[in-house]
Amino acid sequence: MQAARDRLVPDVAADGLRVLFCGINPGLMTAATGHHFARPGNRFWPALHRSGFTPRLLKPSEQEELLSYGLGITNVVARATARADKLSAEEYREGGRLLALKVARLRPRWLAVLGVTAYRVAFDDRKARVGPQERTIGDTRVWVLPNPSGLNAHWTPATLAEEFARLREAAQR
């Protein structure tokens, strides 16, 4: 697994998506497999399904299917690490700058950043909370979702899915 450290994982993205989900950075399992949110304990895929974004529970290896639902995945920081706390504030800030350029180019309706702390550092917004943000990137609205990592235990699978569903409802309007 250590061989995957610093490996880049390609985005699942296209122009004009309904929602571009944005993880903090790839974990080592994701980097080793090339599939986003690949660690078995990660709750991204179950939350996506339980919230109604996908009609069935997708496996990480089926990530390209997201495009057919108008969904995609990218990361704030491209570099893979064992844990997000291995990233520097400079990496987050540079990641936020590059993410804003990517969003301006791809023009999704919503950018959903998965992790309020990552969002706060990347976009220099210390007061951000989970939910819709006032910030836009061009015409793209921004929503901060809880980090779906199993380490973020105070968000249960049910409350995580509820928050994802709030975004899904907003993205359908």
Number of helices: 5
Radius of gyration: 14 Å
In round numbers, the mean pLDDT is 94
What does the overall shape look like? globular
Number of strands: 5
Strand line-up across the major sheet:
2-1-3-5-4
The SSE order reads: EHHEHEHEEH
Helix content, binned percent: 25-40%
Q: Please identify which CATH superfamily we are dealing with.
A: Uracil-DNA glycosylase-like domain
What's the number of structural domains? 1
Unreliably modeled segments: none
Largest sheet: 5 strands, mixed
Q: What is the CATH architecture descriptor?
A: 3-Layer(aba) Sandwich
CATH class division: Alpha Beta
CATH topology: Uracil-DNA Glycosylase, subunit E
Structural class: alpha/beta
User: What percent strand?
Assistant: 15-25%
Instruction: Report how far the terminal alpha carbons are from each other.
Output: 42 Å
Describe this protein's structure:
With about 170 residues, the chain is of the alpha/beta class. The chain has a single domain, classed as Uracil-DNA glycosylase-like domain (Uracil-DNA Glycosylase, subunit E), CATH 3.40.470.10. It is built from five helices and five strands, in the order βααβαβαββα. It has helices at about 30-35, 45-50, 90-105, 115-120, 155-170, and strands at about 20-25, 70-75, 110-115, 130-135, 140-145. Strands 2-1-3-5-4 form a five-stranded mixed β-sheet, sandwiched between helices. It is globular.
